[in-house]
Structures are given as C-alpha cells and as structure tokens.
Amino acid sequence: MNVTTDSGEQITVYRNRVEAIAAQYVESLPDPTMIKETACFRGLLKTVYKEIFRASGTQLHNTRTTVNLEDVDLLNSLWDMFTDVCYTYGHVPTLAKFGLMIGISAVTFSNWQAERSRNKTLSHFKAVKDWKAECEGALEDRAIMSNSIGSIFALKCSHNWRETAPLTIGEQESNGASQTPEQIMMKYRNVERPTLPQMDDN
User: Fold this and answer.
1) 148-to-138, 142, 143, 152, 165 alpha-carbon distances in Å
2) pTM
C-alpha cells in the first residue's frame, strides 16, 4: 500500500488500517490484557509492518519498507499513529519500536540524527529530534508515576540522564550556603583567632 501526503484522505487510510489491525490482533489474544506485555506488543507492531509496510520486492536504496522515506510530513504522520497505538495499550514509544512497525532500520535513524540524510536538508534531523524528545518525556512520566527502574535505566542509556549523588556531611558542612550563621559560629568556636599586625599611626 503506497500512501503519500498529497491528500489527507490517504493518511486516513493508513490510520484506519493500523487501528483495524491492532483491534483484530488484540481480539485474537487469549487474554486482551496480554497486549500490555512487551512481547505481545512487539508482535502487534510486526503484524502492522507485515500487513501494511513491508516491501514486496527490491526498493530504492535497499529499504525494507514501502514508505517514502524522503517525505518527512508522511513520517511525522506515521509517528503520530505509532504513538497513539503505544499510548492506547500502555507502552512507551521508542525509535526502535517505530522502526519495527514501518520498516526503518536503526542505521537509518542514526544517519538522520547525524544529518546524513540523502535529501541534504535538516528536516529529517529535526523530525528524529522531536521523536526522541517525545520518547524521553514518556519515559520520564513512567519513571515518576510508576517509579519504574526500567524507565530510569532507559533514560540513562538512551537519553544521557544521570543521578546526582547526595551531598556527604562533609560536603554539606563545606557549603556555607546550606548553613545558618549559628551553625557557622559553632563550627569555628574553638578556632584560635589570628593575631593581626600592629598598624603604625604614621
């Protein structure tokens, strides 16, 4: 199925197909709540790929998808569809999952992030930057709301987050801004005061 962004109706075709396949896939599960499991959700994404986006033959630049990768507007529309599916079934979006659904390799994403896209514009770089920001925000929400260790780990690995160690007692004491005047006076109460040199009146 080839869909372009020349018509909003064509984008709607993609969305309707994705939603229909997702509903059918969930209905086929022994227990619909299984879709919240990672393996089942990946199975859904792969089913969408095989049913809609998998190339039937050799494509330009040896891509594995029927999607026109030069069309950033289309890619952004597909990203919106993908994230809708993720949020509907309680999963955090990632570039890897998006690539699984529409047939984009990790190498292609890396090239776009490094501004090595074939069309020599910054549009792909900006798109991937926006997608990654949404992924990071979703992980942050999961980490805060669910205290998810997996989400915290993913933030560290994929988004360069790091933990700041709490100040030790010694560090706290050396930080005058965190001490009251009374605490500072007590700290130095037994310190011998230096003798100041005598100043001549002349």
Assistant:
1) 12, 6, 5, 6, 19
2) 0.68
